[in-house]
Automatic annotation (TrEMBL):
InterPro entries: Aminotrans_V_dom (IPR000192), Aminotrans_V_PyrdxlP_BS (IPR020578), Cysteine_dSase (IPR016454), PyrdxlP-dep_Trfase (IPR015424), PyrdxlP-dep_Trfase_major (IPR015421), PyrdxlP-dep_Trfase_small (IPR015422). Its EC number is 2.8.1.7. It is an enzyme of class 2 (transferase). Belongs to the class-V pyridoxal-phosphate-dependent aminotransferase family. NifS/IscS subfamily. It comes from Sinimarinibacterium flocculans. GO terms for molecular function: 2 iron, 2 sulfur cluster binding; cysteine desulfurase activity; metal ion binding. This is cysteine desulfurase.
Length: 384
């Protein structure tokens, strides 16, 4: 199978697997990092090494990295934690209609608790503008939550430009950077983001481990969502999974080392794929073509039915939207927010090459998609 669904998850890098295995055997790698004896201290040293590796990927400080189970938990901790620490009464937050479900559903939950939410609409190419965010601010705005890269269409939001403007206004900024880490340079020493979410399995690390960057100066304060033991500076209690954390640290180190190689390569693959598929009639590119993330290409194919298209591609791993929303079997809410009707949104494919993708796989995928589209259009013309 040709895997062009790396935006959903990435295969575990062999070097990451090797690093994790050292902490899964009986040779002293099973200590609790919170224990004050030799086994515990050894595990704690590994955890802190990994914390520094993740911090380096972000140009942050190690003490600003809080371990979580993944980006969903990081997003919940950031948004709920920031609002609850401030106080939910008369709180206001700003987000968009095309965020990841882990952000959207968290904000909807907070609406049931009395928080007022401003939901921003994207432009037709999936952009959220700086002035658009600033215009939504109110005197009681506590938080803006905005993803760095949209997970379905690859649009890059203006985080670098927006962050200092929100800092001037005393508004916290949370960024879901799941699709940005390892694909775009992130420098939190220069960009004053307050809270930032990561997930290891999006950059060749293990599933079940993530991190939340929590800025120390000026300090972003959070109410914990899990209590018991006071781990992770009191923000996230629970025994740390050393092997998972070591894996995320190794994956972050590799992502930092390979960024200048991987990103241009993935961008070239997306361009090559679009050059072959974009010549088909009635094909729509979803999201901005210029300034997009290097690893995501989303196309809609007019005149066919989406389920039939995907059924014709058994040897091609692609998606019709976010893997976290696929269980609904509904057309992508992101594409509908761009103005695509349900039929066109349903007949969309997200292609996301990765570190191990080859040029030959790109060309084979293009041939299979072209053949499927042409066959289905022949069977059921668009005006039928």
């Amino acid at each position: 199978m040709i895997n062009l669904d790396h935006a959903a998850t990435t295969p575990l890098d062999p070097l990451v697997r090797a690093a994790m295995l050292d902490w899964l055997d009986d040779a002293g790698g099973y200590g609790n990092p919170a224990s004050d004896h030799a086994l515990g201290r050894r595990a704690r040293a590994a955890v802190e090494c990994a914390r520094a590796q993740v911090a380096t990927l972000l140009a942050a400080q190690p003490e600003e990295i809080i371990w979580t189970s993944g980006a969903t938990e990081s997003n919940n901790l950031a948004i709920k934690g920031a609002l609850e620490f401030r106080g939910l009464e008369r709180a206001h937050l700003v987000t968009t209609r095309i965020e990841h479900k882990a952000v959207i559903d968290t904000c909807r939950y907070l609406e049931t608790r009395g928080v007022r939410v401003s939901w921003l609409d994207p432009t037709s190419d999936g952009r959220i503008g700086v002035e658009q965010v600033l215009a939504a601010l109110r005197p009681d705005t506590a938080l803006v939550s905005l993803m760095w890269v949209n997970n379905e269409i690859g649009t890059v939001n203006p985080i670098r430009e927006l962050a200092p403007l929100l800092r001037e206004r005393g508004v916290l900024l949370h960024v879901d950077a799941v699709q940005a880490a390892g694909k775009l340079p992130i420098d939190l020493a220069e960009v004053p983001v307050d809270l930032l979410s990561l997930s290891a399995h999006k950059f060749h690390g293990p599933k079940g481990i993530g991190a939340l960057f929590v800025r120390k100066r000026p300090r972003a304060r959070l109410a914990p969502q899990m209590h018991g033991g006071g781990h992770e500076q009191g923000m996230r209690s629970g025994t740390l999974a050393t092997h998972q954390i070591v894996g995320m640290g190794q994956a972050a180190a590799l992502a930092a080392q390979r960024l200048e190689v991987d990103a241009p390569r993935m961008k070239a693959f997306c361009a090559r794929l679009y050059a072959q598929l974009g010549t088909l009639p009635d094909v729509w590119r979803n999201g901005a073509a210029d300034g997009a993330a290097p690893h995501i290409l989303n196309l809609s194919f007019g005149g066919i039915e989406g389920e039939s298209l995907r059924a014709r591609l058994p040897d091609l791993a692609v998606s019709s939207g976010s893997a976290c929303s696929s269980a609904t079997r509904e057309p992508s809410y992101v594409l509908r927010a761009l103005g695509r009707d349900d039929r066109l949104a349903g007949a969309s494919l997200r292609f996301s090459p990765g570190r191990t993708t080859t040029e030959a796989e790109i060309d084979q995928a293009a041939r299979e998609v072209r053949a499927a589209v042409e066959l289905l259009r022949g069977l059921a013309p668009a005006d039928a």
